[in-house]
Write a structure and sequence with these properties.
The structure is a single chain. By secondary structure, the protein is α+β, with helices and mostly antiparallel strands. The chain folds into two domains: 2-85, SH3 type barrels (Roll), CATH 2.30.30; 99-224, Lysozyme, CATH 1.10.530. It contains ten helices and six strands. Strand 3 (40-43) and strand 4 form a beta hairpin. Helix 4 (108-117) runs parallel beside helix 7 (167-182) and helix 8 (187-196) crosses helix 9.
Length: 234
């Protein structure tokens, strides 16, 4: 009965409204002790589907969920534009960055050349670089990721990169890695795999319930103005 009630509530949340309302929410408590507040969580026999407060969905095995509690603190929910509310998949309403703006970015010519060579949308490559390093070729994360596209050491070795701080080598490997991921999964999952590792995506059966990865994917999709099902290729 409770499951059916949740499904009904989930369906009702999809109906567009013409006013700002106080929306109910769920707190998902995972077996590893972590928790997160979401718009809603629908638990099935095998999978759990959560709707994020900022938009979009994530699917993962229900076996990792300890319980779902109602969030006692409501939050304001803005009405969606009609064209967004009517969509069956999350879409992005931000305008796509113009070619003129992209051409003014650092390493623009190199990015265009490498992206075209691998039949990848240059806007997607720019978005990943902006998110990963903000175009800083000497960037290094606490986890050891390096360069423009923040290659991890294992990824750099996989693609034969000797110097991850070399913009051309880093970009070539990062684009190839992203293209390889896109050959096996849709864009949101490929971006999630680029951030958290392909093994993590497989383990959860979709985007993991990590705020960092969720925000990472959402931010890049907004930058490129791509729907959730966009392939990212030319």
């Amino acid at each position: 009965m409770r499951c059916a009630f949740r499904v009904l509530c989930f369906a009702l949340c999809l109906v567009p409204t013409a006013f700002v309302s106080e929306a109910e929410a769920d707190i998902v408590v995972f077996k590893n002790g972590r928790s997160m507040s979401v718009k809603s969580c629908v638990l099935g026999p095998d999978t759990a589907i959560i709707r994020l407060r900022e938009g979009g969905e994530a699917t993962f095995p229900s076996s990792i969920v300890a319980r779902v509690d109602p969030d006692e603190v409501p939050y304001p929910e803005e009405p969606l534009p009609v064209e967004v509310a009517a969509a069956t998949t999350p879409v992005v309403t931000r305008a796509v960055i113009s070619d003129e703006v992209l051409a003014s970015r650092p390493f623009a010519d190199l990015i265009s050349t490498v992206a075209a060579a691998h039949h990848l949308d240059k806007r997607l490559v720019h978005a990943v670089i902006e998110q990963e390093s903000n175009y800083q070729p000497r960037a290094r994360s606490k986890k050891g990721a390096r360069g423009l596209m923040q290659l991890m050491p294992d990824t750099a070795r996989q693609y034969g990169v000797r110097n991850s701080y070399d913009p051309k080598s880093n970009l070539e490997a990062g684009v190839r890695h992203l293209k390889d991921l896109l050959s096996r999964m849709e864009l949101p999952l490929a971006l999630g795999a680029y951030n958290a590792g392909e093994g993590t995506i497989k383990r959860y059966g979709g985007l993991p319930p990590y705020a960092e990865t969720q925000n990472y994917v959402r931010s890049i999709l907004r930058r490129v103005g791509a729907p959730a099902g966009h392939s990212g290729t030319n």
